[in-house]
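Protocol step 4 of 6: structure prediction from sequence.
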Amino acid sequence: MKQVMYFGPTIPGLIKQNTVFRDGIPERIAKRAEEDKNFSRLLVPVEKAFDARKQLSIDGSVLAASFANVAKNI
């Protein structure tokens, strides 16, 4: 099973920034990902972590926009 890392902002009561899931994604996280495309984009395979960090620092990138949208709705 692939490891997945959350690159979004901390959402109190749901998930902390930089959380790594090693044995699958918990049901409540998977449900949120199904409901929110921006949140879903912030769940990145660990092997792509370097690129994801880079993308977060680029204004206008998909990950940066997704991060901003999720943060706005906390």
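Step 5 (inspection) to follow. The chain has a mean pLDDT of 96.
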